[in-house]
């Protein structure tokens, strides 16, 4: 049985959900991109539906897998430095005292 047939028949549904529930964001993106590449045409849509991810996340995973490994150091971080919300101190203007 080919991978495409297995996905179409629903045999992977439980397994994919189980695996993706235990991965962090970056790992989900990479595994989703890898599975999508294995499936070929239409794989992005199928894996996005099975894993509950946005198709753009799957496409980004395929792009990430083509980049050199040095671009993704194993420093314990899931996201690159500088991402996320600004610190509350920077965001809130100081209160004036009367």
Write a brief structural summary.
The protein is mostly helical and 98 residues long.
Question: If you had to describe this structure to a student in words, what would you say it looks like?
Answer:
- This protein is an all-alpha fold.
- It contains six helices and no strands.
- α4 (43-51) packs across α5.
- The chain is elongated and about 75 Å long.
- The termini are far apart.
- The model has no long low-confidence stretch (mean pLDDT 78).
Layout of secondary structure:
Layout lengths: L2 H7 L3 H9 L3 H15 L3 H9 L3 H12 L21 H4 L7
Helix pairs in contact: 3-4, 3-5, 4-5
Features:
single chain; 98 residues; 6 helices; 57% helix
Helix content: 55-70%
Tell me about the biggest sheet?
A: none
Total number of helices: 6
Strand runs, count: 0
Radius of gyration: 19 Å
Class from secondary-structure proportions = mainly alpha
% residues in beta strands: under 5%
End-to-end distance, in Å?
A: 76 Å
Average pLDDT: 78
Q: What are the secondary-structure elements, in order, as H or E?
A: HHHHHH
Structural shape: elongated
Low-confidence spans: none
């Amino acid at each position: 049985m080919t991978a495409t047939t297995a996905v179409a028949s629903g045999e992977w549904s439980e397994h994919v959900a189980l695996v993706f529930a235990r991965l962090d964001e970056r790992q989900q993106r990479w595994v989703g991109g890898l599975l999508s590449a294995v499936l070929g045409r239409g794989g992005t849509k199928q894996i996005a539906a099975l894993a509950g991810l946005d198709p753009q996340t799957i496409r980004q995973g395929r792009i990430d897998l083509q980049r050199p490994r040095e671009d993704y150091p194993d420093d314990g971080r899931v996201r690159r430095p500088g991402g996320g919300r600004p610190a509350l101190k920077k965001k809130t203007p100081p209160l004036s005292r009367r």
